[in-house]
Every structure is written in C-alpha cells, then in structure tokens.
Amino acid sequence: MSDHRNSRRRTMKDDETLEISIPFDQAPHLDPQIFYSLSPSRGNFEESPEAGSPALALMNGVKAQLHMALERNSWLQKRIEDLEEERDFLRCQLDKFISSARIDSVKDADGVLCRYKKILGTFQKLKSMSRAFEHHRVDRNTVALTTPIAELLIVAPEKLAEVGEFDPSKERLLEYSRRCFLALDEETLKKVQALKKSKLLLPITYRFKR
Length: 210
Known about the structure:
mainly alpha, two-stranded antiparallel sheet, 2 strands, rod-shaped, Coiled-coil domain-containing protein 106, CCDC106, coiled coil
C-alpha cells in the first residue's frame, strides 16, 4: 500500500511486523567539494591560444636559425684570423729562407758586399750582432773572414786598384779577403774603427793578423 509521499514496506521476522518509511521527495545531500575534486582540470584539456600559434612557432624557428648563423659567423671570423696569422708566419719564413739562400751563396766581392749590407741593416734595427746573424742564418765567423772585402769597398774603394779584381780561377775568396785586409792602411783603419763605434759598420773582429 502506498500514497503520493511515502512507500511502506513490510518485513516479517519472528512473527513481528516492521514498518520502514523511506522518503523520496527529498534529495540526498552530497558535498559539492566531492564533485569539484573529481572533475578534471580545464587546464589539462585547454591550451593557451599562443601555444599552438603558427606565428609564434615561425618566430621561434627564425630565432634559432639566427642564433646558429651568428655562431657560425663568429667561428668563420676566428678561422679567418687564424689563417691570416699562419699566412703571415709562412711568408716571414719564406722571406728569411730566400734572404739566407741569397747571401749564403757568396762567390765574389759583390756578393760579399751585398751580404754585409743586409746584415748591417738588420744589426742597426735589432741592436744585436748575434740576432742579426741568426736572422740571416749566417755564421759569424764566415762573415768575419770576408769583412775586409766589404770594408775596403765601403771605406776606401779607390784601393781596389792596388788589390785588383777577384778572379775565382786564380784564388779563393778567403785569399782575396786577406789581400784586402793588408791593403787597409792606418788611416783607413782609423776610419773603419770610427764607423764601427757609430754603428755604421759591423763591430766585428778581424780573423787576420799582419
């Protein structure tokens, strides 16, 4: 038996009747916090309108390419500087080699004078005899043995008539240098010493004795 508000249910237990009334017109109370905690977050399903923007993706790509281009340009610039430095070094070494090759192959009086002037110019710049010889890769004793030839040609070229021209078929260059040394008289030697003190000639000691 039922009416519009309640429904009754009868249960028989140990010859007793139990009546239970269950109201249907009142909705059960549920805490809204339960639904809030169970509902999925909107942030998991909705993306920022900027995240999927093609313009933003294009801009990021351009920035990345620009950064790579700048790094490559910096590397290339450094590489160019290294190559230029290496080029200058090799050029300097080549110049030294050519210079030394020219002055080592001295076979006559003109060659002796040319070598002497090159070493003299370097000595006047570096202010060092040893560095000048090292720069031209010439042995000091070799230059000293032929110095009288150069000094005679520079200080007293008129005395060449006394010494005569060098003839490689008749004598060695060392023998010709000794004859030039003997042709240096006292007056000429004083001029030579004065020029050596003022660094206008190489301050080198003779290897010959009178």
